[in-house]
Amino acid sequence: MPSQGLSNLFPWFPSGLIPVFDVVLVILLVYVVIRFLVPPRTRTYWVIQGFMILIIILLILFSVSKVLGFQLLQLVLEKILTGSAVGIIVILQSEFRRFLEQLGRGELRQLFPSSNHEKLQPDNVLDEILTAVRELSQKRVGALLLIETNEPINPREFKNQGVTLNAEISSELIQTLFETTTILHDGAVLLRGSRVVAASVILPLTEKSLSRQLGTRHRAAIGITEKVSNCLCIVVSEETGSISLAEEGTLQRPLTRSRLRELLQSRFSPAIEREVVRQDVTRLTREIGLQGKRLFQRSFRFLSSKLHRKK
Q: What residue ranges define each of the domains in the chain, with the CATH number in brackets?
């Protein structure tokens, strides 16, 4: 038995964890194929990733059925695993042919292409925000950007929740939203991670006595940061084009672009990184759930047909 051979080779390794170790090895193998041999964001990449999810589900179900003693289910899953392995070779035969050709020619460097992921990076998001703020400041277009730095803000803190957008952050989008010719230019734009969550959000005003040089946007920025601690508010003055940052009820002004970047990097970048992890986990969970549902439906139909034939 393979498990006995592994136990003899590593006596200290718990025999009960051998099936789990087997699954982990398969996952790592497929991951290496996806990571190093297939260009990201291509059709082949998504096919192999879907195959990996399917294999993981099948192996988990096979291990569970083996523990519970479901002989028929083990047989069905074993056949599906074998068919999936053959099917992926047929589907990706051109990729395998190119891989073997490059391996035979000794073109090892081409087997490990550098992957320029289009994955979200904190610096990219900050650049988009800072570019928009700079352009708005130069054009003297008034703006109010509300940025979440931790958990989402309770909508009850707003006087009006505005219009939901849920769009990717871009300098062009932010500038367009604050153009006076657009309907959504009044109020604040709410940013969460890499997303523009909503526009035309009406914020509560502070009751503090402020300088006459500070307008409604500044009062709103101070007001929301007084009530909510996990947020920042960037204000661009319509009259002077000066840039201000409100945090915990305190207004810092005027700010240069470099100083604004420093402040945002220390407070906003961690929120973007958490969002990246959350998006990856959510996407993987959704894919596993979808594949598991399809697999369950097909297995149920197969077992039903088997039982019907025996009758």
A: 2-116 (no CATH), 122-271 (3.40.1700.10)
